[in-house]
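Exercise (ungraded).
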Amino acid sequence: METAGPFAALAAQQKRAKTTEDDDASAAAECDVSIAPAVANAAAKPSSPLPSASPASTAPGAAPRWGVAVNDLDWSYPGIDGQPVAGQPPLIKNFNLKLAPGSCCLLLGANGAGKTTLLKILGGKHMVPKEKVLIHGREAFYDTGLTTSGQLSYIGGDWQRDVAFAGYGVTLAGDFPASKMLNSIPGVDEARRKKIIEVLDIDPTWRMHQVSDGQRRRVQLAYGLMIPYSVLLLDEITVDLDVLGRADLMAFLRQECMERSVTIVYATHIFDGLEQFASHVAFVAGGELRFCEPIEKIDGLRDLEPGALLSTVEGWLRKEAEIKREALAKKGIVPKKVFEYVRNSGWGSGRTASTVSFGPELGMKHEGIKGSSNAVMRG
Ligand SMILES: Nc1ncnc2c1ncn2[C@@H]1O[C@H](COP(=O)(O)OP(=O)(O)OP(=O)(O)O)[C@@H](O)[C@H]1O
């Protein structure tokens, strides 16, 4: 997809970077949270300075520099047989991203752009070829010690558990207090435990089957934040939080970056207050990284004005939608405006009658799938 308008300068910069070897210079253009932009950003925000920790050394034989490194990754969801779907282009395309320790990177893009998929790949939840996705130089998928040690923490939208016979996707709710969960995590420093419970304003006596969605979310977050991770992946985790809870959490996360050189990648559509949180912004469209830049280098964001992120990202999304429409028009495809039934992959493990393949192409009528919960309508 061609880039134009607001993307032109950034796209050109990224293209230049791709033509060079994967040395520090090119990595910097991809998304290098090195000390220079961090300090520059701190200067712009005296009340809440950005990370002052140095990035890991690049000296020969020294510890790997990047907290997160994605190297020329192409990736797709497998088909029902676990194999790549023949003829289907990759969902994640030619993806390169490098973040040094101490970075707070917002991962932005339209619905379906690939943010969750990417975060799950970074979290080691999807298999990728070796060397393609590294967390502090270790293989995200193959090195299970990364997640079992808590060094790599992924907190996603759902907090669910599998319950025998009730199926998958059952919301976590049992009659036990929040304290039972939060005190059961071994090896957590008491001061850290207290701090996190305080930041998230959790009442340890909350019964988990009686809490509200937002209260459950707070406990989920506390649980995921408790072990001192070095890389934290967050997928739209603040949806249920009230304004205060969200502000306190973001301030805590920022402090984690500053004091412990944590690398954070945060995918979200809720932008308020994030100008002061982010050191970098990565924008994804159609599975491709359009750009990843220090926030103060991005037009419209460099002054870190409250509200700037919302209007700037809206502009990017509108531009993307336009580019997409133009590309479709070139192929002679006019997006349908009528409602129609769509069929899904026909596969939903553990669910009874919730996923059924149907549609005119199978010669099946809607009446044939009565009882299915999955008759999806799209406009
Ligand atoms: N399990 C799956 N199997 C096949 N395709 C999937 C699966 N999960 C997601 N996809 C597809 O991958 C694409 C990217 O989805 P993803 O969830 O990563 O997007 P996103 O950027 O996180 O979107 P949103 O902002 O809506 O959360 C979408 O087109 C989606 O339909």
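Further reading is listed at the end of the chapter. For now, observe: Residues 77, 91, 109, 111-117 surround adenosine-5'-triphosphate (CB under 6 Å). The two ends are 24 Å apart (CA to CA).
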